[in-house]
């Protein structure tokens, strides 16, 4: 059984997610689109995933979650290709729903993969990997251009997967490692 927080704690986490999302959205709509804005959308997406683990997201929270996923992908592509991102909602609303469908398909594939893997070997097989990644991560943090979004996304997903298996220590470690790649 999952450890349960009080309902007040869910509301606190929900309010935190909303504030983080609204701050990112405000930066986006005021045309202050930087890597920090991308990080804020990405982080709000992660926290909505964590909140979804403990309670079902409301319709409004789910819309913000999907929008944060969309903006994370969109802004990352813009920064990677040196394209100036357009502020605000996408002109084509189908783009957000298309991203949502792709993400749902990806989530289903990942869930199947998790159930096929044996969790007992998860910790053993990855300990050396984490030590190596932490060493590489500390070496590459010298410049702001060394932000590694792919590794950050990967470790954020590991954190969510650890929560599914009710492993708080691994989830915390992975979330910290994920955020360290964004600094």
From TrEMBL:
InterPro entries: Vta1-like (IPR044538), Vta1/CALS_N (IPR039431), Vta1/CALS_N_sf (IPR023175), Vta1_C (IPR041212)
Keyword Transcription part of the UniProt annotation: no
Domain Vta1/callose synthase N-terminal as annotated: residue spans: 10-80
Principal cellular location given in the protein's record: cytoplasm
Source taxon at top rank: Eukaryota
Domain Vta1 C-terminal positions: 154-183
Residue ranges with Basic and acidic residues bias: 91-106
Topological category with respect to the lipid bilayer: Peripheral membrane protein
Alphabetical keyword list: Cytoplasm, Endosome, Membrane, Protein transport, Transport
Claim: Transport is one of the keywords in the record: yes
GO CC annotations, alphabetized: endosome membrane; multivesicular body
GO biological process: late endosome to vacuole transport via multivesicular body sorting pathway; protein transport
Subcellular locations according to the entry: Cytoplasm; Endosome membrane
Regions annotated as coiled coil: none
Pfam families named in the record: Vta1 (PF04652), Vta1_C (PF18097)
Region (Disordered): 85-116
Family membership: Belongs to the VTA1 family.
The name this protein goes by in its record: Vta1 C-terminal domain-containing protein
Organism: Plasmodium falciparum MaliPS096_E11
